[in-house]
User: What shape does this take?
Amino acid sequence: MRRRLFSEGGIVFSLSASLYLTCGAILAFHFHSFFGDAVSRMANGFYILYSRDPHLAAVGFVWNPLQSMADVVPLLLYHLWPPLATRDMAGTIVSSLCMAGATYQVLATFREWGIPRFPRLVLAAVFAVNPMVIYYGSNGMSEALYLFTLVSVCRYLARWLRDDDLRSLTFAGVALGLCYLVRNEAVAPAVTAGALVFALSMHRAQGFARARIMSGLTDLTVFLFPFVTSFVGWAVVSYVITGSLFNQFTSVYGTTAQIRAGAGGGVVHLGPALRLEVEALLYLAPLLVVVAALALMTAVRRRDSLILVPLSVVASGLGFDLVAYVSGGIIWSYRYLIAAVPVEVLLVGVVLATARTRTLKGTIRSSTRFDLGKRAGRTGTRFRQGLGTAALAGVALLLLGPSLPTTAAGMFNPRVGYEETRTLGYVLHSKWSSLDRSYSQNFQKSQDIASYIAGLRLPDGDLVVDNSSPCIPMAIVLSPNPKVFVIPNDRDFQKILADPVTFHARYILVPPPSGQGSLIATNHQYPSLYDSGDNNSGQRFATLTHSFTAGGGVCPAFRLYHVTQDSGAAPG
Assistant: This one.
């Protein structure tokens, strides 16, 4: 264990995890800067353990569950250290370890590809300190776990390509199955990498066409079985509990409904969307075209199929989001293109790789272009070996170095990295803009809601609220008694919302019913409640207790109503 900790990989993992944890702690405790979706994902794990109705299905079915389930592990210690929830340190711990794991996988991949130590350390370092990698390794979002699983698929699939061993193919398949439980983007690598596995296996096999096809199908089954299990299993569980196979798309809280309600700027037009994507890619990987051309020329010269692995795994995940945005399937977010960072790094690794690989026909080939050990042996000097190694590191820096400042520039371009600009602008700007001042109040607004409700000293299950509303998940985890809240994750939410008096729920907290607020369950059940306190029959059944002012850039002006009589609504 001690040897592993102080090994090359152990040191890189430890340093990376320390960097991300430190940045996350500074953001959480000093600046109170939290990414809304990260808090919501952590809160989904929190509801499993500490809500009014704790149960496993409280994780929700709008997002893939692995990030929230991973957050549950540190949340088990919530009562010993409340900041695990109140400062989302549970999410930060998970994302820090996962992004450090992604960095380790990058390093291990290059070691297996035969890249000398100094250049591979440079490549891993450039990946680790990329501003987007640092931020999303620190803020509790699912990008870290996504990159960890995605790069793991790439590493083990490349090992299978080289060694043709079943264990590596199995590891790659398991990583892909886990990747789908993090993000829907895993569908693209399943298709493209699956096609690669089938083609390579069939071409390597001996005998007649039938035998070769069966060989290809066997390897394909091994590779895709974990993914298919995750895909079908999650769909079936979703259907049994929610009545929908793909709740992330069909739910009123899903992406489709959010887009229709005007999230992310409304209708997407092809021309502007393509220009925005190109601009974002130029920020994230400014020399990607040059790197891809060099990798392709290297592959052709060596007759080496290694390039197909990062293209079929990581690049296809990136392509999924590019196509999804221009087709109107997702809203715009700079972070959706974060896979461009490992794509560029891995393609540089393809250029510098020296390990033996297999051609499509299964022939073992060994690159000698950068085989520094043999050259040093022939010359008998260590100087040439060191010089050559330094040259490779210089090539890596030359190709990847420009991405560090340009990625940061994209994060602070309000049109490209609008989320990062809002959550980090007031952290890094010496002079605050009005936007910075507004978003610096997000945490305080959630705290105000939690403090006011705590002051009412309500019993369990006394306040109905839809926790998909902005700022509410943070308010719930900040509350000294989260069991006060009746939320959609509770199995009896709908019947309590329809008849709060019968079920002894005396308060309803509602946001304005316009825009995305129209999707909120409380507004859907009582469209006139926010404005007048009326039920669906136009009769007043609640009186206004308190109004919370809007602020923080995302927190709407909530109103707290005290239910005074029967709602007159049939249970939903």
Residues 366-377 have pLDDT under 50 and may be disordered. Residues 442-563 form one domain.
